[in-house]
């Protein structure tokens, strides 16, 4: 399926997400939290422990480090190439993050579950980025290992 035909809310062609997760090495997580009870913290932890170089992004100037990783206060502050920008912000903020991802020349824009915006996706795609929305990379990493057990009683 051509890139332009990808439904960025629910369906992706076979291998699309898998190829992205295999190709990226450096992930800037916009909306990273140092609060261990937050979902973004758990996703950052798993991705980091899986071997991705994680670059937490949080605008709070008082947050300097999350899990021993230097915190950047904006995407523009990152001083190295970024393969993927993962967005843990409200979907209303996705468009502005998409524009910043383009500016820093990221390869992929990824909106966490609940984060999607068709205009942001189009702008990013037109700039050459691959786009995934309304998905969690932590979940997608482990999806191939899930085996449905339809024989279990509820």
Verbal overview:
The chain has 5 helices and 7 strands, in the order αβαββββαβαβα. The chain has 154 residues and is of the alpha/beta class. The protein has a single domain (8-144), classed as NAD(P)-binding Rossmann-like Domain (Rossmann fold, 3-Layer(aba) Sandwich). The strands form 2 sheets. Strands 2-1-5-6-7 form a 5-stranded parallel beta sheet, with helices on both faces. A two-stranded antiparallel sheet has the order 3-4. Strand 5 (84-87), helix 3 and strand 6 form a beta-alpha-beta unit. Helix 3 packs parallel to helix 4. It is globular and about 40 Å long.
For the record, what is the CATH homologous superfamily label?
NAD(P)-binding Rossmann-like Domain
Percent of residues in helices comes to 25-40%
Largest sheet: 5 strands, parallel
CATH architecture group name: 3-Layer(aba) Sandwich
Count of structural domains: 1
> Into which percentage range does the β-strand content fall?
15-25%
Keywords:
alpha/beta; globular; two-stranded antiparallel sheet; Rossmann fold; 154 residues; 5 helices; five-stranded parallel sheet
